[in-house]
Amino acid sequence: MEQAIPPAAHGAEHEATTTGLNHRKLLMWAFLGSDCLFFAALIASYLVYKGRSVVGPFPQDVFDIPVTSVSTFVLLISSMSMVLAYSALTRGSLKVFRIWILSTALMGMTFLAFQVFEFRTFATHKIEVECAGLEVQELTAIEQKVAEGCAAGVEKVVEQHGLTPKTNLFGSTFFTLTGFHGAHVTIGVIWLLSLFLYSFRRGGVTPERHLDVDLAALYWHFVDVVWIVIFTVVYLFGVFEGFQ
Amino acid sequence: MSQEQETVVFQKPSDAVHTGHPTPMTYFTVAVVLAGITGIEVAVFYVNWLSYGIIPVLTILSVIKFALVGMYYMHLKYDARLFSTFFVCGVALATAVVFALITLFSFFV
User: Fold this and answer.
1) Do residues A226 and A181 lie in contact, with contact meaning Cβ atoms separated by under 8 Å?
2) Per-residue pLDDT tens for B20-38?
3) Which residue of chain A comes nearest to B57, CA vs CA?
4) What CATH fold (topology level) applies to the domain A23-125+161-243?
5) pTM of the model
């Protein structure tokens, strides 16, 4: 007769299930696997419509790589603080757990603030062309169009060419993709703040119930890996001239 | 019902348990590497002479970052293989979807 394996001291390692694994965790991994397909559809839409916009602005007109690099850095570091929060909880240090999980949520909010700033900047994007010493071949397509306003006695032409989801194919696919990612981050921040507040309730967040935090951490890291792909494919490849 | 029939067979512990526990130092080291790779990505982006070489370089760096987060932060390196299977299958299917759509739109649209 075969013997049942008793649960391990840390809880979730040996589960009384046919797989020996916790079904909640398995469900989370199944969800993350399926969410990959959701983002794949959005990334594919962005790529297949890349370079097919009839009017500007185009990626090279609006993207600010240094700013996006900072927000990417913040999201990467938030993953470290999330895993440190989980590590502190499993070691039984609830105070340290609270510090790290609050730091993670704050970094998530910082990332969202960067995204709001970026969307706002894109929507109110202005193109300035200095008319003196104008060299048309060095200008982008949309700058050349603005430069048509240069006439005798005009020093500078400024026109607003904002990017919104309705502007062109680039705007539609870009805002849909990054907007859905931002929605995922928002859900993650709410989840983390809920865990932080719940940890003040007696027995709410305990080392024995670490799986609750583990699932939130998996979701948060997933949001991070999706951004790793978006940063490279959408932003870096987006501005690279040979990839138009 | 006999006692024999009531027994549930569980998976072997070697297949289901954590096989190690990374320390906070490991997490910190991974974060430093991730930040370093992001810095390299941005630096590579401004190197003009790489031309089309930028595409494989950035792709490889991105894959390394993805793998590091998956293996260490999401604990796939230490956790049960079934979790990795679920996630890797999702990523593989997602990648296939992206390439299939790009191919379809390149030749038929």
Assistant:
1) yes
2) 678 889 999 999 999 999 9
3) A232
4) Four Helix Bundle (Hemerythrin (Met), subunit A) (1.20.120)
5) 0.84
